[in-house]
Amino acid sequence: MLFFFSAHAIYLEFTAARHLRDTSVVVITLDSSEVYIVVSLSTRTDTQVIYVDPTTGALQYKGKLGDDVFKSQTEAIEYITNGSKWLCRSTIYARAILGYASLGSLGLLLVATRLTSSIPNLPGGGCIYTVSESQWVKIPLQSPQPQGKGEVKNVVDLTELDIDGKHYFCETRDITRPFPSRMPLQNPDEEFVWNGWFSIPFKNIGLQQHCVILLQVLTIYLHIEH
């Protein structure tokens, strides 16, 4: 993927993308084995809680204030844990959700735990991040579906993919087309989207933007001094 900066784009006023915070993702596993994904997007002021069905692995979200929508990440976590950190078996902190799939006996969640600002200031605002570190969260399901040898191999192959340093995204701009794209963020050119199928579970619950649009290409940032 190449980024083409037109003359019009070069002379645009450089303005930083407006956001109040960095995106934050917290994956909480309780002692009961229940798993919650707590997401606070940079483009929103509230926090959403996504529940992973322990039987089917399906993601669940109702959009109900005080149930899975909260004013802050702290408020959401306190609700999930009843204010006690001792109820948490594990807590994973991340910067972005890269995808999710329920495959056989596992729910597989891929998150970015560390990002690098590859192009920090796009003309007109926005930042392109490269995934520098990622982590697979494997969620055992209570009623797993039977798996053949081929399906087991698919799971192994998926979790062994080389993600770090080779994938990137932008939270606010369409970068799947020559820049600047006039298309909205959530209508990308699917030819360049790496995690299209992997983001479907989030689209199904109405939280499409909570899983970033991930591209698998090397980005090069050239700084030109006048």
Topology, element by element:
Elements: H1 7-10, E1 24-30, E2 35-40, E3 47-52, E4 59-60, E5 69-70, H2 73-81, E6 88-94, E7 96-103, E8 106-119, E9 128-140, H3 149-159, E10 168-170, H4 200-204
Antiparallel strand pairs: 1-2, 1-6, 2-3, 3-4, 3-5, 7-8, 8-9, 9-10
Order of helices and strands, N to C?
HEEEEEHEEEEHEH
For the report, how would you describe the main beta sheet?
6 strands, antiparallel
Please work out how many helical segments DSSP would assign.
4
What's the N-to-C terminus distance? 26 Å
Principal-axis shape equals: globular
Spatial extent as radius of gyration: 19 Å
| Fraction of helical residues | 10-25%
Provide an overview of this structure.
This protein is 13% helix and 30% strand. The strands form 2 sheets. Strands 1, 2, 3, 4, 5 and 6 form a 6-stranded antiparallel sheet that branches. The longest helix is centred in the C-terminal third of the chain and has 11 residues. With 226 residues, the chain is α+β, with helices and mostly antiparallel strands. A hairpin with a 6-residue loop joins strand 3 and strand 4.
Question: Any key phrases for this structure?
Answer:
four-stranded antiparallel sheet; 13% helix; 4 helices; alpha+beta; 226 residues; globular; six-stranded antiparallel sheet
